[in-house]
Design goal:
It is built from 20 helices and 14 strands. The chain has 442 residues and is an alpha/beta fold. A five-stranded parallel beta sheet has the order 2-1-3-4-5, with helices on both faces. A five-stranded parallel beta sheet has the order 7-8-11-6-12. β1, α1 (14-24) and β2 (30-34) form a beta-alpha-beta unit. 34% of the residues are buried.
């Protein structure tokens, strides 16, 4: 039996609990036990299990009711029911509520172990199928495109770092592709068959940041009417990518440092420690060292996340990759049509300074494929500002700063969206919080 299977045995008979601990626990299976429903609830809240072996008759509650509660909380968890009073109606009801199998006492331990193994195999298969479907849907984000010296050196570093468990801090301007690097690190690691949980810290509400990351218990605060799992629990055994880590509320940073140091945390409203096994990846477009000096970022957390740094260059620093990026995006954006660029259109793209980086290139190509009346995108299909900038000496003398170019682009997107900031933030691929901050700096 693989040592990755975590099993909870819930039975009021002490000899049954000891039997599982002695016979199966010594064989490599991780076993924890509970004598009643209340203990089982606590353990399921504090720990992560793959299988629950559950007695129908418990001293404090109906086992079938507990089965239903557990499945509602964690639909992917497999439950095996056992009882000394087995009836066909009970068996039918248990299966209807989501139990994997139903075994009556007295039972042979080998039989139970076999059922646990099969249930664990099914749980793993379902998890892998979900992961494969998600990866297939997001396959266009799983490729680092380019052959520039910058990109080749980043690929080499990814290949070296991915198999390790060290935290990685990915830096670079917005739109440079930091999320692609995170996906590549996960996909090339030993955790590639496990979840990659992605969260932009800029979208975390300050008051609910702890709850969203760590989860909370029922009654932990006003409105917490049920148990809620956090992102850490979802990322167990996999990887977690926290984008814009500089936006993580300062008061949450010290609690998160504890997770990095010993892989434990406490849910909001709970005094129990929860153990997780997660590989952490981070990204930022800020100068975190400067923010540490200004007291805006936890110094200990900075040193803990900055074990390995991968820096993504601006698109204007790797312009030789633009033709490959164009081909890649045109294929992914409109696979049903074979788009290409005229020589003139490609020259305009090569001459542009790309303040919005790769994200801006993708957005412009998406717009052009919609506007173009045929499969060859010409300069007439490109935004006017690209052509006007190419003709302006400002584009080549450095008179316009990158900040001014970014502000101009944001203003144009807002105008096209009728000043709808939510839609603008979607097109720019930044959070509304980041968009508001950039507008305030205008």
């Amino acid at each position: 039996m693989t040592d990755q299977c975590r099993t909870l045995v819930v039975d009021d008979e002490e000899n049954i609990r000891r039997l599982f601990l002695k016979e199966l626990g010594s064989g490599g299976m991780f076993i924890q036990t509970a004598a009643n429903g209340a203990e089982a609830r606590e353990l399921c809240t504090a720990h992560h299990f793959d299988i629950v072996v559950l007695d129908v008759c418990l001293p404090d509650m109906d086992g079938l009711k507990l089965l239903s509660e557990i499945k509602n909380t964690d639909p992917d968890l497999e439950l095996i029911m056992i009882t000394g009073y087995g009836t066909i109606p009970d068996a039918v009801e248990a299966i209807r509520l989501g139990a994997y199998d139903y075994i009556t006492k007295p039972f042979e331990l080998e039989r139970v172990e076999f059922v646990i193994e099969k249930a664990f195999e099914r749980a793993r298969l379902q998890k892998e199928n979900k992961l494969f479907k998600r990866q297939w849907q997001e396959s266009d984000k799983n490729l680092l495109v380019g052959q520039s010296e910058w990109i080749n050196s980043i690929r080499t570093l990814i290949n070296k770092v991915a198999p390790s468990e060290v935290p990685v801090l990915i830096t670079g301007e917005s739109g440079t592709g930091k999320d692609v690097v995170a996906r590549e690190l996960h996909n090339r690691s030993s955790r590639s068959n496990e979840p990659l949980i992605i969260k932009n810290c800029g979208t975390l509400q300050k008051e609910l940041a702890r709850s969203e990351l760590f989860g909370h218990c029922k009654g932990a605060f006003t409105g917490a009417d049920q148990h809620q799992e956090g992102l850490l629990e979802l990322a167990h055994r996999g990887s977690m990518f926290l984008d814009e880590i500089g936006d993580l509320p300062l008061e949450v940073q010290s609690a998160f440092l504890r997770v990095l140091e010993n892989q434990t945390y406490r849910k909001v409203g709970s005094k129990k420690e929860c153990q997780v096994n997660i590989r952490f990846l981070f990204a930022t477009n800020r100068n975190l060292l400067q923010e540490v000096q200004e007291g805006k970022f936890n110094e200990a957390l900075y040193h803990r996340i900055n074990v390995v740094n991968i820096h993504m260059p601006k698109l204007k620093e790797r312009k030789q990759d633009i033709p490959l990026l164009v081909e890649h995006f045109l294929t992914k954006l409109r696979p049903e049509r074979k788009f290409s660029l005229s020589d003139r259109a490609m020259k305009i793209l090569m001459d542009y300074d790309w303040p919005g980086n790769v994200r801006e290139l993708k957005n412009i190509l998406e717009r052009s494929t919609i506007i173009s009346e045929n499969e060859v995108i010409t300069e007439q299909d490109l935004p006017a500002e690209l052509i006007s900038q190419e003709q302006s000496p400002i584009a080549h003398t450095g008179w316009m700063s990158l900040r001014e170019m970014e502000q101009s682009y944001i203003a144009q997107v807002l105008e096209q969206c009728g000043n709808n900031r939510s839609r603008a933030s979607e097109i720019l691929r930044i959070s509304r919080k980041t968009l508001y901050r950039k507008l305030q700096h205008n």
